[in-house]
From TrEMBL:
This is Glycoside hydrolase family 13 N-terminal domain-containing protein. InterPro entries: Glyco_hydro_13_N, Ig-like_fold, Ig_E-set. It comes from the Bacteria. Residues 8-64 form the Glycoside hydrolase family 13 N-terminal domain.
Length: 94
């Protein structure tokens, strides 16, 4: 996830019972997290805190390769497998 004006970011989805999994600020406008439980087909959203306020509704991933609807959850899809190398359009990079 990228963001200059973001205080905190988490990801929540079916892989963790919609609990907030905090992302780490990489201090280069990127946020990251390893979510070993994430599987293809899992739904997820980002939880963003800006100026101390959690933004509602939680945000879908604008780089997701699949969505449940135009206003719905992002879907974890890994066509042809998933490369764990740097990929600015992976499911956990916004």
């Amino acid at each position: 996830m990228t963001g200059e004006l973001t205080d905190d970011v988490a990801v929540a989805g079916t892989f963790n019972g919609w609990s907030k999994e905090p992302l780490t600020d990489e201090h280069n406008r990127l946020w990251s997290v390893d979510v070993p439980a994430a599987r293809p087909g899992d739904d997820y959203r980002y939880v963003i805190v800006h100026d101390g306020v959690e933004l509602r509704p939680w945000r879908p991933d604008p780089y997701a390769t699949a969505m449940r609807s135009s206003l719905g959850d992002s879907a974890a899809e890994f066509p042809g497998g998933f490369s764990w190398g740097y990929n600015p359009s992976s499911i956990f990079t916004v």
